[in-house]
Design goal:
- This protein has 611 residues and is an alpha/beta fold.
- Helices cover 62% and strands 9% of the residues.
Length: 611
């Protein structure tokens, strides 16, 4: 089911229930006349006839009617609550998936949280504001009853209703932009909280509390100011409507008393008119008091509707499992939210069983390429093809089976190690999980933990070290033996043993016919690669056998770093040349191997692993 269809069906189902709720509201509002009519009968019949039996009969009837009204009101409230929960059940999953979608798949409009929008919709359906909307259509009927008592009372009631509606309209006109501004600042404020929580270690380690507190204060002050203006506006309107309704009730009572003195109506009719008028205007007052929630809910509903009305993705066929090649055809990529491409006209092919290293200085487009290869960032031009089929022709489920991805910033989820390796798939088998861990070389590591594969790692994997997280994330990327494996800085947190396990995993993936793309700064990650792609300024400037590309890069680096002999001593020249050689141009953090050849696997580490 597409998101659009799910939203439409959920709203259509809710509307059917609203019809029933409207019928309930009709009966409830009719029963609301019990009090005024009882008062009318007491004043005009019981007091004049002095009949206790009549009073008792009327009182018993009132008890029964009030009990029936209470039952209906309770049922109406519970029905509306259930409607809210059904909407949440129908829309919550799509809202969550929309919230965690790739940046390019999200709305380009103002930032919003679809999950919170669904929460807002559900909470409103459980509030008094929604019942006020169902009761408000009865205002003309109540005013008509007052007209029947006496036209003068009806005209006064009409005038009062017009004033209350004017207050409501002014509230809407003034509060709507204020609430919109407050909502935008609330999103920005929540973003600061989330960023602070994600980077809490950096904040603590570098003593950034005061600086981040200043960022928070500036944003929070703007939010509080906008929120206060919106609250003050709605609060003023709420108080004004409440005071005016009380005044109007007294004014109707005063006019009724005058008409009763003139013997134009009875004293009972005077009291009944006052009560009926108060009851008729109560939903308007309640609506004004809940105006802020109504506007917020309206905005949330509009955002959900706009998201649901976007064109649904096409229904894709199940393509055969890729087994031959990965092709990058004239690929250009523009990061989400930007207009400047960070990858330009990249073109290369990797055959089954190949491992391709991607090197270059920081900011040259390496991580952009990794994101484009796995479909996180879409191509602005060109395409990534698996066995000749563009990546966009593969469904999300199919792509997840054929692609493994280790991002530069490793993120694990709150759950067990086994669940994280299996990508939380409910059909995962123990054998497939253990196989992925063994391939990644972290099976023994996991067994050394207290609870093994059932170890809870906490939010973000905080229970593990950075190296442990990276190795488990590697196992997750290898889970299910995917055809295309993209590793972005896979050894940034690994020691020598971890490097050996990584290269062994790459070799095993190559042996079974996978294509491995390794984005690396450290040369040790390139040991198992066959070819290298050198990037500069978003362009592929060289592509060929690993050793040939490294030699070219080293020669160019030596030439670019040589200064005239008259300016530096021979010793300094030798030191400079040694520095260039050690950096290996694969990027930053060069390895120990001079001459650019990737380091040989650590024999001790290999022996330890094999043992």
């Amino acid at each position: 089911m597409t998101q659009s269809r799910g939203f439409s069906e959920a709203v259509a189902a809710a509307r059917k229930v609203f019809t029933t709720v409207l019928l309930f509201s009709c009966v409830i509002n009719l029963l609301m006349l019990t009090g005024p009519l009882f008062m009318l009968q007491v004043y005009d019949r019981v007091l004049t006839s002095r009949s206790v039996s009549t009073l008792l009969a009327l009182f018993l009837l009132v008890i029964a009617l009030y009990f029936f009204m209470g039952v209906l009101d309770l049922v109406r409230s519970r029905v509306l609550t259930r409607v809210g929960h059904r909407l949440d059940a129908a829309l919550g999953r799509d809202a969550f998936l929309s919230a965690i979608a790739a940046p390019a798949a999200r709305s380009t409009g103002p930032k919003s949280d679809p999950v919170r929008d669904v929460d807002q919709l559900r909470n409103f359906l459980s509030s008094s504001g929604v019942t006020a909307l169902f009761d408000m259509p009865w205002l003309p009927i109540y005013i008509g009853i007052v007209f029947l008592i006496h036209p003068a009372l009806g005209l006064l009631a009409c005038a009062g209703a017009v004033v209350l509606f004017i207050i409501a309209l002014l509230t809407d006109r003034v509060a709507r932009p204020l609430l919109r501004s407050s909502g935008s600042l609330a999103v920005e404020r929540n973003g600061i909280i989330s960023a602070g929580a994600r980077n809490s270690e950096a904040v603590v380690g570098m003593g950034m509390h005061s600086a981040m507190g200043g960022v928070w204060d500036r944003t929070n002050d703007k939010f509080l100011a906008a929120n206060a203006r919106a609250a003050d506006t709605v609060g003023l309107s709420s108080v004004a409507s409440k005071v005016f309704r009380l005044f109007l009730q007294s004014a109707v009572l005063a006019l009724g008393a005058y008409l009763a003195v003139q013997e134009l109506i009875t004293p009972g009719a005077m009291i009944a008119a006052s009560i009926i008028m108060a009851r008729g205007l109560q939903p308007v007052e309640s609506a004004v008091q809940n105006w802020r929630q109504m506007l917020t809910t309206q905005q949330a509903y509009r955002r959900l509707k706009e998201a649901a009305n976007r064109p649904p993705p096409p229904v894709l066929l199940d393509l055969p499992t890729p087994t031959r090649s990965v092709q990058v055809e004239n690929l250009s990529v523009v990061p989400p939210g930007s207009v400047t491409p960070t990858l330009l006209d990249v073109r290369f092919t990797a055959r089954a069983g190949a491992a391709v290293g991607v090197i270059g200085p920081s900011g040259c487009g390496k991580s952009t390429l990794a994101r484009a290869l796995v479909g996180v960032w879409p191509a602005a031009r060109g395409a990534v093809l698996l066995d000749g089929a563009p990546l966009v022709q593969w469904s999300d489920d199919a792509r997840s089976r054929h692609i493994g991805y280790l991002p530069q910033d490793v993120e694990l989820f709150n759950g067990t190690i086994a669940e994280n390796i299996a990508r939380f798939r409910p059909d995962a088998t123990d054998e497939s999980i253990v196989t992925a861990a063994q391939t990644a070389g972290c099976h023994e590591l996991i067994l050394s933990l207290k609870d093994g594969y059932t170890t809870m790692i906490g939010d973000g994997g905080r229970a593990l070290s950075a190296g442990q997280r990276q190795r488990i994330a590697l196992a997750r990327a290898l889970y299910g033996d995917p055809f295309l494996i993209v590793l972005d800085e896979p050894n940034s947190n690994l020691d020598g043993y971890g490097d050996s396990a990584l290269n062994r995993a790459i070799s095993m993936a190559k042996a079974r016919g996978a294509v491995v793309i390794v984005v690396a700064h450290r040369p040790s990650a390139l040991s198992a690669t066959d070819t290298l792609c050198l990037f500069e300024n978003g362009r592929l400037v060289d592509h060929g056998p690993r050793d040939d590309v490294l030699q070219k890069v080293m020669r160019r680096e030596k030439v670019s770093n040589v200064r005239p002999a008259a300016q530096i001593s021979g010793t300094a020249q030798a030191q400079q040349g040694a520095t260039v050689t050690a950096s290996v141009t694969a990027g930053e953090g060069g390895g120990p191997n001079e001459g650019g050849t990737p380091p040989a696997p650590n024999k001790n580490a290999e022996a330890k692993s094999n043992g």
